[in-house]
Amino acid sequence: MDAGDFVVKHRKKGMAAIIFITLLFLSIISTNGIKYEFDEKGFLPDDPVVETNERILNEYRNEYLVPVLAISKDGNILDKNNLIEILELEKRVYENTGVAPMSIADVISSIFLALGNVSESDYDSKIKAMENVGNDDIKSLLNLPFFPQQYISLMLSKDFDGERAEAAIIGISLDGSLLKDREKARENESIIYGIMEGEHEYTRVAVLGGETILENIMKENTRSLSILLPLSLIFVVIVLIFIHRNFRDVAASLMGLLIAIIWMMGLGSLLGYAFDPMITSIPVLMIGLGIDYSIHIRHRIAEEEVRKAIRGIFPSLFLSALTTTIAFLSNAISDIPTLQHFAIMSSFAILSCLFIMLFLMAYEGKKRKMMSMRKFTLSLRRYGKIIVIFATLITIIMAYSATGIKAEFNITSFLPEKMEISKDIKYMINNFEAAAGEEAVIVARGNMTDPMMLMAINEAENNIRDDEYVARYGITSILSLMQDYATKSLYDTRYNKSFSEMYARYFENGLPKEGTDWKDIKQLYDMLYAIAPSDARKILHRGNGYDECLIRIETNTGKVEENISHLYAQLKEDVYPLKNSGDVIISGGVISGYVILKTFRSSQMESLLLTLFLSMIILILAFYMKGKSLILGVLSTLPVIFSAIWIMGTMSLLDIPLTITTITVTSLAVGLGIDYSIHMIHRFIEERDEEKVLKSTGSALLGSAFTTIAAFGLLSFSFLPPLRMFGVAVSLAIFYALIAAIFILPAIMYWLRSSKFLK
């Protein structure tokens, strides 16, 4: 029994199965619910360097930091009135949360209190101290020889010149347990936001906590989809009315789409996936992709009776659905969790849509006359060789352009540009050195109380200091931390007399003396943990003994990929002394970001090659079995190879980088675009005439491609920049695939037939 006979004979059973499965998924959704959540971890690849960086961020701190950006309205945050206003805000935070923030206002007011021999250091005393001084007193203080300008500059914007700065960061350190409780973290940030919000006389402040940022992204994503989803439905209805020209076809098509979306959401609910911006874009995509099946089915039924139409159209529909599924599913091999989820859910939705549409659309309809494409066919015969040569030249140019495509990863890029919080985050990243994330970290694992391990750390530090992109005096380790607490200077706040005396017994010139053993070093570590637990935890890990420590390295690569690559290579050579004493891994924000970008590139290439390889094998076998021709399977992949190269070249020209969303574009260009080639070649095997193929299939392809381009194109109006770029890139890729399928493919086929290479 062929597909046509099966669908027609068992249509009622198929409809009953569709209803049953739909009710089942609806019950799953009502029971489990749908989790709308945006978590940065879902966008990070499964890589040791990236995982180590995340572990460092979580384990090597006992605080949950909420940065608050304060920008002066008069251009100088170091003005007396600005500093007093910051202290008043900090006082309100302390009174409501019990947490004392830290800022430049605290440092300056505390020094004035010390100079005035005032022992109190509460906020009222700090505010009173600032009220009793003038702006000239503040400038004089900032320029005193003992004032730690290098340290204080981290709290101020980069324009700090010793007297003026436009902005400052207020650091609010909440309990470290919030790192593992997102809900409570969100609640605490909300409290701080409530305290800080409102109009202030001298400063404008913005709470930039991590959960606040993620919550804003999800809110904007929901608002964006609430507009785009109805728009895409309205547009598709208009297109369907124009193509089908009857209410029943339009209603059945929309019903099929709705059911497929319910199935997709039900699967996500069953698997417990978080519906982040990537996942929530699938319904919009399905409106464009799923409608293609209804168009092709009804278009074929308009030519012949249902049984014969399904029999004729099913092989090409199945092959197109299979290759499209492969394109989406190829992203499941990615190391990035959210891409894996996107791949599984979208591929399931595509196969579901094919099954649903086959049974839902298989009814008799009125026969319609197809548009004539005779003139177009004659043009192909006359200019076929020119078209092929021109396409080849364009492909060479685009391939060269594609070599310049950039990669980019920044979770805050999901924030719409026009939102105030987006502008504030961008300002903070661009104007504060501490916010730029320019840090590399060496993680040394082993017995940290072993004197030989400390010798190895010292040797590695000496190697690192000469590296091109390492900031001067920018290395912090357990050796430098102990020296800080053991050495007294004019304005040193870390010096501890008891620790200094013990340190002097066992260390000399920053290294263990001869005869110092692990017990002596352990005593020093124990005391350091007792007198400075916060600083100690940022460097030294205490688990089963002291088993790990960090070498933190300030870098100045400018976040240029080539510079980071050079730094990474140097650090790999620098750490060889540590490999003899234990395990070592290089990580940190700047290195982790570089590894993520490399993962994006490799993920794109792997999914593209996998999609191309599997699609070509499947199509060669399928078309050989149907048309006894190996060359037809190869021909079917040529248009999508063209379109994949063209879209990469275009992305480079339009400065669209490879991001978490756009790395899927090339594989989707193959998987979606190859549908057009399949329908063209499948009909060619039946007709063996380019004019009949274009007449019967070309018009249906135009309709289906138009709806798909429109669906992805609507994403280009998303409020979230990565989804906007994704929409633009995929729309162009599909357009290129369509052009290649209806212009280049027929021209190649005609040229091969006229040259006797293709019968």
Blueprint of the fold:
Blueprint: H1 3-9, H2 11-32, H3 48-59, E1 63-72, H4 80-97, H5 104-115, H6 123-131, H7 135-142, H8 149-152, E2 167-175, H9 182-196, E3 203-207, H10 210-244, H11 247-271, H12 277-280, H13 282-301, H14 306-329, H15 337-360, H16 374-402, H17 420-431, E4 439-445, H18 451-465, E5 470-476, H19 478-486, H20 497-506, E6 507-508, E7 511-512, H21 518-531, H22 533-537, E8 540-543, E9 545-555, H23 561-574, H24 576-579, E10 583-587, H25 589-627, H26 630-653, H27 665-687, H28 690-715, H29 721-754
Antiparallel strand pairs: 1-2, 1-3, 4-9, 4-10, 5-9, 6-7, 8-9
Helix pairs in contact: 1-14, 2-11, 4-6, 4-9, 5-6, 10-11, 10-13, 10-28, 11-13, 11-15, 13-14, 13-15, 13-28, 14-15, 14-25, 14-27, 16-26, 16-28, 16-29, 19-20, 20-21, 25-26, 25-27, 26-27, 26-29, 27-28, 27-29, 28-29
TL;DR of this structure?
This protein is an alpha+beta fold and 759 residues long.
